[in-house]
Amino acid sequence: MLPHLLRGCRDQDLCGSESAALSGEGPVSGQRPEFGEEGVLARCFGRWAAPPPIRAAIKRRKELPFDNVIQRDKKLKLVTKIRRILVSQPNRVMQPRALGRFRRDLGLTKKRRFIALLRKFPAVFEIVEEGAFLLKFKLTPEAENLYLEELKIRNQMED
Questions:
Q1: Its domain of life (predicted)?
Q2: 126 strand-pairing partners
Q3: Domain range for 15
Q4: Tally of domains in the chain
Q5: Which of left, alpha, beta for 20 (phi over 0: left; psi -120 to 50: alpha)?
């Protein structure tokens, strides 16, 4: 009786035995009832009810070259966001602790150490120690020159 109820059929006489209810076979012919047969569906699933949904999972094939491009793009966007925040600061110098206020703007949800994040990009960010426990970071001279050149080109395009 229990498998019959799990299948959703309301008329045990129509489906026959419990094993037939599990397999979806009809009582007499040994075949599954067709969806076009109004009487069979009306008694099995209710007058207006639809058959149970089919559940399927789609496996995603990984394309490593494309995944690598996406990961590099994410890192580039993160670096440009940090650069934009740093450039908006006076003297273009900032403490990593102050970068925590911009966590949501950077798209970071997990707790991450910003100093480790900045050390991943030594060509862009330079970490300066001031005193025993005070760390600040700024753009490297090459990154600063690229930023100024980018600003100049952007201003020329606007004119």
A1: Eukaryota
A2: 138
A3: 2-45
A4: 2
A5: alpha
